[in-house]
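Input/output pair, single chain:
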Amino acid sequence: MSLPPYMIPPNAWAAQIMAQQQAQAYAAAAQVQQAQMHAHQMANQIQQIPPPGAPLPVPMTNGSVGMAQSGIGGNNSVGGINQAQLGQIPTPKPDIITEEKLQEKAQKWHQLQSKRFAEKRKFGFVDAQKEDMPPEHIRKIIRDHGDMTSRKYRHDKRVYLGALKYMPHAVLKLLENMPMPWEQIRDVQVLYHITGAITFVNEIPWVIEPVYIAQWGTMWIMMRREKRDRRHFKRMRFPPFDDEEPPLDYADNILDVEPLEAIQIDLDPEEDGPVYKWFYEHRPLVGTPYVNGSTYRKWNLTLPQLATLYRLANQLLTDLVDDNFFYLFDPKSFFTAKALNMAIPGGPKFEPLIKDHNVGDEDWNEFNDINKVIIRQPIRTEYRIAFPYLYNNMPHFVHLSWYHTPNVVYIKTEDPDLPAFYFDPLINPISHRHA
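Output:
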């Protein structure tokens, strides 16, 4: 058994094993070559055998070969003929395996073994680096393919039909990279087919979560004003294009049109100073120590920045800080509802997790266990989900949710000038006479 090269770590034992494998390969190659030489010699000897009826060579004592000749009168005479006159049987010269041939054979064997023991990747993908092209290139391709009735595009129709199954993904990438209301224009990287059959937006819109929520919190205020003033809201006629209408060319109809103004709230340079310079940028804080670089995966903001973002996002943040409000409406309760194939009243409905459930497969019921408590009235769904091991016969893949958390004594203040800790008048004072 030969070990694949990628399984051998670099050490003395590995070098010895590789040397033994190479020696075995050389010996096998030599045996194959020797067998070929033997077969070649046998073929030459068969060619030297005379046909039937021809005189056979007779060995002589003096090293010469005598030819038996049959006379007409029946008298046989043996004449001494020198071996040099008949000529020697040609023997092929053995091929000498040079070092270069050995190295070549060893390399071929190594490649074969590498392919044999290589890791087979069923869905292997190699991302080939492509040069960035100007946007005019794809615009020209789409403009040229606007009329597909031309004969030079007859072979591209199959490509266009094959690209239709990727259309939902292309629309998804387009929607998730749409410019936000606070952006006037956004340039993105796209990946397009050479025939213009389909185009993907080749970007992932990474964001900093508190910044993104604060941006939409300010948009909530500004959009109410926009709805009132009707500046950016226009009525559209659907469908906007007829079936036979050719598509609009981007360069002729849209490229020269000035986009509408971005919807941005007026920030105060002093009050909103920590976020004033970069709040409405496309990728804020890129190239600063607050994010981990161009990947935009991790962020670490200062306390004044987080406080300002929290104040700007106040319109979208919930006032509910009590976890008991979300009792039976948390992820663990949803997991349990899916495992039990139930639906919480007012909650989501799921596909059954265990589809081949059979009542007869229960481990024990009121017929085979005398100690089982028999409950005749139907049990409410909330009880089955809150206490799955108590009210269900087959509680598979269920999660135990928290029953009750301590009471929250936090009261949100409306006045920002109040101190952090103060006595709220909503809390009834405890009089000394009842103490």
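The first strand starts at residue 57 and ends at 59. Confidence is low (pLDDT under 50) at residues 61-81, 83-87.
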